Predict the structure.
Amino acid sequence: MAVIPVALAGRPYEVRVGSGLLPGLVAEAGALLRKPRVPVVTDANVHARWGAVVEQALTAAGKEARWLIHEPGEQAKSWSGLARTVDWLLAEEVERGDHIVALGGGVIGDLTGFAAAIVKRGCGFIQLPTSLLAQVDSSVGGKTAINTPAGKNLVGAFHQPALVLADLDTLATLPPRELAAGYAEVLKYGVLGDRAFFDWCVAHGGSVVAGDGGAQAYAVEQSVAAKARIVAADERETTGTRALLNLGHTFGHALEAETGYSQRLLHGEAVALGMVLAARYSARLGYISTVDAARVAEAVDAAGLPVEIRPLQMQADGAALVRHMLHDKKMDAGTLPFILLRGIGDAFVDRQVQLDDVAAFMEEQLRG
Ligand code: NAD
Ligand code: GLY
């Protein structure tokens, strides 16, 4: 097992990465699970595959799992999903000193974390991430949120978990498309700040998405270590360091919005394509070579992730896609910061990007 500390002043915690962590839940969590009844929030897919393992772990330690099971999918991250979760936690008489368990992907982690942030003005929670995306990104760093009709993740809170247990065994039941989508966030750490890790991804990314346990362990450990460093340096995304994690997200956000946040384009797929677009746009502005932009696209393509917009057959034009970008929560004092590349492994925040030029670039990408 690898233990990766997230060194936040006043609320440090550990991310433990390894096999068999769900069966060992009670020993791992120790005093965090202080009561006989343990509230666990999950979704139906994850419950069907991993519910019995968690149930057994708690029962063997003389505890009772209390389950709230949401329908799978982004819809749970809504006002109604939040109300359901909060009302249930209150009915379960959760107290501030208790820890709610979030068992699932990023949807369950974001929703449960936000509920934990507001119940009794803030109680504890433990992340048990079961998707690759959740293990390498969303379970670490304390961003919690729901979606509203105005947009995705627009209502939420920074609320750090007390512990993250990333059980690599859970990745074996993840659908291959979800595994590949999560890998986009792995590759992102290499592209934004670590050329050596990018090179490792080029060599071993295929093994990660093919289900190789050793490659998955290395990918998750390196990704969590990178995220922990960034979060410790800039917890609330105020200095520009954490903003680098948004590489691919501004372009990707426009594509997700245009495709209705649907199965047409998963979040990780949008990030992958967005990362390719960010690299191509960086080349257009002369920051990187077209050879390096092509290298990023090749690494994305090798994992079976999308590298072109055209197959999505969108009706929108470039200007419409830029309008989607303007509704992004990353807007700051009327300007939209873009994460661009000076090289592979060298991302930076560019606040001077001309939106009409971005629209022209997107138009080229749409029409080829
Ligand atoms: P998800 O939670 O919807 O999970 C994807 C699918 O896989 C779901 O159908 C789920 O039921 C299923 N699943 C999860 N684990 C499984 C397993 N082990 N076996 C079988 N099926 C399993 O989606 P996701 O990709 O994990 O997360 C996406 C969400 O994360 C989005 O809402 C996004 O906004 C959010 N996110 C948050 C952050 C953050 O910093 N908080 C970062 C990135 C993404
Ligand atoms: N996923 C982006 C962040 O945690 O900041």
Residues 213-233 form the longest helix (21 residues). The mean pLDDT is 96. The first strand starts at residue 2 and ends at 6. The radius of gyration is 20 Å.
